[in-house]
Amino acid sequence: MPVILGIESSCDETSAAVCVDGEMRSNVIANQTIHEAYGGVVPELASRVHQQNIVPAVQQALTRANIRKEQVDAVAFTRGPGLLGSLLVGVSFAKAFALARQIPLIEVNHMQAHVLAHFIDEPKPAFPFLCLTVSGGHTQIVLVRDHFDMQVVGQTTDDAAGEALDKTSKILGLPYPGGPLIDKHARLGDPKAFQFPEPQIPGLDFSFSGLKTAILYFIRDHVALDPDFVGNNIDDICASVEHRIVTILLNKLKRAALQFNIKDIALAGGVSANSGLRQGLTELGQQLGWNTFIPKFQYCTDNAAMIAIAGYYKYLNGDFVGQEIAPLARMPF
Ligand code: KG4
Ligand code: ZN
């Protein structure tokens, strides 16, 4: 009955979770609001806030799980990819905790963990399945053959989908983080009000930089004619941009499903919190006879529960690392 403490600090969320024999007992997430004033994550500030938050987050995760630190059997932590200074805080804490308690240390790849979030609750997808992993830094279609046998079969050649949403919100003058605000406005707007181009990228890869430029020029040209254009059309603009991003993602996912002849299709990463994408995948799945898997909101954006569940499966495999382990800003599967 292993008790796993999971630690996540790859970007601007400090999170700790406790998993007991594969069951998630707690998942504490401390958000960093300091970045709002800067319109994006400031790496140096993020690592300083992680230092302040890490001990209280772990203490709270243990308390909520009703577990004493002496009962923890292993510590799983995000090794990468992410901001190096942020990762360093979580990695150092995990190493110190494991050393003090003389328990095993488990490294976790953050992008694999987003996929493994599907193994926290029922229903769990069956192998092999395809997972569209969409976050602020990544856009990937992953072929998942087993818990740790994953292959990226398509990915973005430039910006990530979340980055496109965040940059659009910046162009529109909305505060950071933009994704959830675009979602909110989009619910009130007409997705067909404005047409944005769909990039023609071969195979299963994506591109979002051309779309970002198209949005920038569209806003610039309309504001030149009508200074109130954005204020008067914010809902329709957000709905139209979101609609285009969702169709780009789902068209490639459909192509991948046909190519690999797979009908178990999952969604993961921060952008999977988007209501338009969730609804779009559900509808497409019904149309094509897919079994679709959409994570609960608290497991979409960055969280330590996904690190703890990945750690649980690695614990069962006896897959541990030593104290010499260092974080990695870039970390392929
Ligand atoms: O996975 P995540 O929390 O962090 C990374 O690993 O990057 O993803 C963050 C991304 C941001 O781009 C954020 O704007 C986006 O997820 N996001 C959303 C929503 N909630 C978060 N995008 C659209 N709609 C949402 N509701
Ligand atoms: Zn993430």
Descriptive notes:
There is one protein chain. With 333 residues, this protein is of the alpha/beta class. It folds into 2 domains: 3-115 and 300-317, ATPase, nucleotide binding domain (Nucleotidyltransferase, domain 5, 2-Layer Sandwich); 125-294, Nucleotidyltransferase, domain 5 (2-Layer Sandwich). It contains 9 helices and 10 strands. The protein has helices at 43-65, 84-101, 110-116, 161-171, 178-186, 209-225, 229-260, 275-288, 305-317; strands at 3-8, 13-20, 23-31, 74-80, 105-109, 129-134, 139-146, 149-155, 264-268, 291-293. It has a 5-stranded mixed β-sheet with strand order 3-2-1-4-5, with helices on both faces. It has a 5-stranded mixed β-sheet with strand order 8-7-6-9-10, sandwiched between helices. A hairpin with a 4-residue loop joins β1 and β2 (13-20). α5 packs across α7. The radius of gyration is 20 Å and the shape is globular. The two termini are 28 Å apart. The structure holds 5'-O-[(R)-(carboxyoxy)(hydroxy)phosphoryl]adenosine and zinc ion (ZN). 5'-O-[(R)-(carboxyoxy)(hydroxy)phosphoryl]adenosine is lined by residues 11, 135-137, 162, 165-166, 177-180, 183, 269-271, 273-274, 301-302.
